Amino acid sequence: MNIRDKQFAVIGLGRFGLSVCQELTDEGAQVLAVDVDEEKVKAAMNFSTQAIVANCTIEETVYELKLKDYDMVMIAIGEDINASILATLVAKESGAKSVWVKANDKYQVKILQKLGADHVIMPERDMGIRVARKMLDRRVLEFTELGSGLAMTEVVAGSSMMGMSIGQIELCQEEGVQVLGFKRGPNMTKAPSMETVLEIGDMLIVAGPQPVLTKQLKTLS
Ligand code: ATP
Q1: Nearest CA residue ID for atom 15, ligand 1
Q2: Ligand 1 site, CB within 6 A
Q3: In sequence order, what are the residues at sequence separation of 6 or more whose Cβ sits closer than 8 angstroms to the Cβ of residue 110?
Q4: Which of 36, 117, 128, 193 is 20 to 30 A (C-alpha) from 211?
Q5: H or E stretch including 62?
Q6: 8 A C-beta contact, residue 134 and residue 155
Q7: Which atom of ligand 1 is least distant from the CA of 40?
Q8: Which of 16, 21, 22, 36 is the best mutation target for the ligand 1 pocket, counting ligand atoms within 8 Å of the beta carbon and taking the most?
Q9: Which residues, at least 6 apart from 75, have a Cβ–Cβ distance to it below 8 Å?
Q10: Which residue spans within the chain are E strands per DSSP?
Q11: How far apart are the C-alpha atoms of 26 and 8, rounded to whole Å?
Q12: Beta strands in 148-192 (DSSP E)
């Protein structure tokens, strides 16, 4: 299914909910933004397909939102745990297929899971893990065999690669190895210039003869 055909609902438009809305909208998805606070809804109008004022702890109101027609519902009500719990319960009861909920601590995670939330996130913890992973030196993410003796891998640049150009990385100098892509933040560049200077967290997508990659990856990991 094309991303443009995907329908998302985001309930709770604090900093977190609003950035979820914005990113989904930027990616071309259909996004319904909901908050009990009219000002928050106004602020979300530019970052969503439709923005509605509604109190999502009220059963009838949630049923009117027809959440069952959405591919995913994100409940991003942080502070008010009672509202978050109730909104999750009602969203599930109204037939929403996939309900993601933001939690503040591990106790909320447990409760929300028991209530049937399909996915519970703790943004601070999850981001902490992601940042720590990025801080780890030269972390290798994936290694995929392509057949005919070739393989593909993703390599995240650690501090030892910082300031080096792609062409200076030993792996990229090996015969038959090609750098297919380069990713910095959300931006992917195909066949990047070998002069590109690396920063920590940059990702290289590299293909080449499997024995060569295996040998090089051992020195990287
Ligand atoms: P942030 O995301 O900014 O870090 P937070 O997660 O603590 O903060 P809150 O400010 O607690 O978020 O709440 C997020 C939003 O949820 C607020 O804009 C609030 O108005 C909205 N909200 C709270 N209760 C309800 C409800 N019953 N129905 C709909 N929206 C609600």
Answers
A1: 12
A2: 11-17, 34-37, 40, 55-57, 76-80, 83, 87
A3: none
A4: 193
A5: helix 59-64
A6: no
A7: 18
A8: 36
A9: 11, 12, 56, 84, 87, 88, 91, 99, 100, 101, 102, 117
A10: 7-11, 30-35, 50-53, 72-75, 99-102, 119-121, 140-147, 150-156, 178-184, 187-190, 203-209
A11: 13
A12: 150-156, 178-184, 187-190
pTM of the predicted model as reported, rounded to 2 decimal places: 0.68
Fill in the DSSP letter of residue 197. B
| 43-97 residue pLDDT tens | 999 999 999 999 999 999 999 999 999 999 999 998 899 999 999 999 999 999 9
Beta bridge partners of 89: none
Amino acid at 59: E
Q: 13 alpha carbon to ligand 1 midpoint, in Å? A: 6
The token pair that represents 25 in the structure block: 């909208």
From the list 67, 86, 84, 65, the residue with the least C-alpha distance to 75 is 84
Q: Could you report the per-residue pLDDT of 160-199, keeping only the tens digit for each?
A: 787 889 999 888 899 999 999 999 888 899 999 999 999 8
187-190 and 178-184 beta bridge pairing = antiparallel
Q: How far apart, in whole angstroms, are the C-alpha atoms of residue 100 and residue 88?
A: 9
Q: How far is the CA of 133 from the centre of ligand 1 (A)?
A: 29
